[in-house]
Design goal:
The chain has 5 domains: 6-78 and 602-642, no CATH class; 81-216 and 574-598, 3-Layer(aba) Sandwich (Rossmann fold), CATH 3.40.50; 221-318, Immunoglobulins (Immunoglobulin-like); 322-485, Rossmann fold, CATH 3.40.50; 497-562, Immunoglobulin-like (Sandwich), CATH 2.60.40. With 643 residues, it is α/β, with parallel strands linked by helices. The two termini are 49 Å apart. The chain is 20% helix and 30% strand. The strands form 9 sheets. An 8-stranded mixed sheet has the order 15-14-16-17-23-22-21-19, covered by helices on one side. It has a 5-stranded mixed sheet with strand order 4-3-2-5-6, sandwiched between helices. It has a 5-stranded mixed sheet with strand order 24-30-29-26-27, with no helix packed on it. A hairpin with a 2-residue loop joins strand 31 and strand 32 (585-586).
């Protein structure tokens, strides 16, 4: 057995003084006493300690020499050569993606096996080798710099946790390639199940990576789609899709919960390597905020990945505000601005029909026209022609100087500058429930308020009697009005989100900050510094709550769901070492068996040293026991028993 530090064998010379201590006689002073009857034991010890006596069998001497030998062997660092995947400067990439949660390796996860494989590489590294650990999750991150310290590398491996998203192999390989500068012998080692996603290219000027495969089986059933959709004015319908990635048919049941309350279920059999669409024919008539679906299986079904057995969605992921618009005569200024607003759908009515449609709308806009019976919904009334139960129309006022925005704290007038506005005339409106936001010397020209649960805004003039449509303030004012009636979605996610996706947030104009609460309850505060805010911490599965903070209060909130709708993670079929393609070619695995590493055993010798040291301590303290009067009697009894 070779040794890394054979110079440590010089320490065996310490055995010489140990032997001398057992051979030399102890020198004692002489004293005259009256009798030697009680000193027989002392006399025997004295006779035994003659100078340079012959060594006799002594258990303590043997144990002490054995301890010295074990300590010297540990310091000499014995080792054997074993095959290893690489040597030199090594970038060790650990796959921490969602598929690594699969439990197809004797009940252990693939990630546990990957850590064990990486630990084996660290234990077998040569003294001149250096290794850097890189965790490859939805974000690729270096765990340690290049080091030859096995202890630091073991600590780094223990600190890595598995994620739930898709691995970013492109970034990870780029990070690894950065370590090749100035290295004579550089290699990249990928410990993975082969789910490398879209990593189809290699960084320039680096050797082909060495691939260490983990994973055994492919059996998995996953929810691969979950969505709610609703036509205008109708209840939403639910659609789901379940995929069987295994080689055997699977009997499944899909259970649907509305706001965590069980409501629906469907059952079916999915052939191997097939998808099963699960439409729900009946619309969901009861109100809900969040919807979750989960899979249950027959006992015979193998399902090694649980992450994709549950999916989430929210009601009205795309919140299109439906506007019903009627105008007396053509007024393109009003109609065009309504149709240009994002997140709205405008339906134009016939002014010759005084009855409203049966369908409900989010907002009713009447320009110079009113129906026989006003609707129960929110209304924007422009130049109303007559008195209604909600307000009274008075005389026409021509005193329109000094147009002023007085509701400066209202979101309706935010960023509305009317210094250049001019107005010909307007109607005098009386409404006890309203408050004015824009005034002139002659009266109020914008009134807002709420009555009987309805939000109502009145512009008591024809916009064609002013230059308002020519000002930049006009589309801003109309957008603020529509948002006040029915706030738009803060995030627009028609197809939902997968783990690691970024959320583009469109905060209202007066928002101070955005609060996002993750499924585990962790809260993130995002300042509003621009027209869009990006939230990228979507590393968990489940429902997130997004809240708009304005003036220290929550003014708007919205839920969104994050799911594992990623084929590369749900399809857990492991890729063999001779089948993984990267950079358009199959990775060559022949190099794996050409490298040799070292496996040291000094730790075993240290453990043996501690054990023998404990035995030596026990034997020594047993011999220190003081003889008593009963000791000779006990010895005679033991002698009789033995005879």
């Amino acid at each position: 057995m070779p040794f890394l530090a054979p110079i440590a064998f010089i320490g065996l010379a310490i055995a010489i003084p140990i032997l001398l201590l057992y051979m030399l006689r102890l020198r004692r002073q002489e004293h005259v006493i009256s009798s030697t009857f009680l000193w027989q034991q002392v006399i025997q010890d004295t006779e035994a300690n003659t100078p340079w006596q012959r060594l006799r069998r002594n258990l303590l001497l043997f144990l002490q020499l054995l301890i010295l030998l074990l300590m010297v062997l540990a310091l000499a660092r014995p080792f054997i050569t074993v095959p290893t995947v690489s040597a030199g400067k090594i970038a060790l990439l650990i796959d921490a993606s969602g598929s690594m949660n699969a439990t197809d390796i004797d009940g252990r996860t693939r990630f546990d096996e990957a850590i064990a494989q990486a630990l084996d590489i660290v234990n077998n590294m040569n003294p001149q080798d250096t290794i850097s650990l890189i965790r490859v999750g939805d974000i690729a991150e270096p765990i340690t710099s290049y080091t030859d310290s096995q202890d630091d590398l073991r600590i780094g491996l223990n600190s890595i946790d598995v994620g739930v998203g898709q691995a970013d192999w492109d970034t990870a390989l780029t990070l690894a390639a950065a370590g090749s500068a100035g290295a004579e012998n550089f290699s990249i080692v990928m410990v993975s199940d082969g789910g490398i996603g879209e990593a189809t290219r290699l960084p320039a000027n680096i050797p082909q990576p060495i691939y260490v495969s983990v994973g055994e089986l492919s059996d998995n059933v996953a929810i691969t789609a979950l969505a709610t959709r609703a036509l205008g004015g109708e209840a939403p319908q639910l659609f789901a899709q379940v995929t069987n990635y295994g080689d055997e048919p699977a009997d499944i049941s899909l259970v649907v919960r509305l706001d965590d309350v069980l409501r629906l279920s469907r059952s079916g059999t999915i052939p191997p390597q097939s998808q099963l669409p699960i439409p729900f024919d009946e619309p969901i008539t009861e109100p809900f905020q969040t919807l979750s679906a989960s899979l249950t299986f027959d006992n015979a079904v193998n399902n090694f990945l649980e992450l994709d057995d549950t999916a989430w969605t929210v009601q009205n992921e795309v919140n299109t505000r439906r506007i019903f618009y009627v105008s007396e005569g053509d007024n393109l200024f009003v109609e065009q601005v309504l149709r240009s607003l994002p997140g709205t759908q405008t339906f134009r009515g016939n002014p010759n029909n005084s009855r409203l449609p049966i369908d409900d709308f989010d907002l009713y806009v009447f320009n110079g026209w009113l129906p026989d019976i006003l609707p129960d919904g929110d209304m924007l009334l422009i130049n109303p022609p007559r008195t209604t139960p909600f307000f009274a129309v008075g005389d026409t006022i021509t005193e329109t100087s000094n147009i002023e925005v007085i509701g400066v704290d209202s979101p309706i007038t935010a960023f509305v500058d009317l210094d250049e506005m001019s107005l010909l005339q307007f109607q005098d409106i009386t409404a006890t429930w309203s408050q004015p936001l824009i005034t002139t010397d002659g009266g109020d020209i914008l009134l807002v308020g709420e009555t009987n649960g309805q939000q109502i805004v009145i512009l008591p003039f024809d916009v064609r009697d002013s230059n308002l449509p020519l000002l930049i303030a006009y589309p801003v004012l109309m957008a603020n009005l529509v948002d006040w009636f029915s706030p738009a979605d803060i995030v627009n996610l028609p197809d939902g989100l997968s783990v690691g996706d970024s959320v583009i947030i469109n905060p209202p104009l007066l928002a101070d900050s955005i609060r996002v609460t993750a499924p585990d309850g962790v809260v993130t505060e995002l300042p509003v510094n621009s027209s869009t805010v990006v939230f990228a911490d979507t590393g968990q599965l489940g429902i997130y709550l997004l809240e708009i903070i304005s003036g220290g209060e929550v003014t708007q909130s919205q839920n969104f769901g994050v799911n594992l709708f990623t084929t590369g993670e749900s399809d857990i079929t492991p890729v063999a070492e001779d089948a993984l393609q990267l950079g358009g070619t199959v990775i060559d695995t022949e190099e794996t068996n050409e490298q040799l590493g070292l496996r040291e055993f000094w730790g075993l010798f240290v453990l043996a040293t501690l054990i023998v040291l404990s035995i030596e301590w026990y034997v020594y303290h047993q011999r220190l026991q003081v003889p008593t009067i009963l000791t000779p009697i006990q010895r005679r009894r033991q002698a009789r028993v033995q005879s």
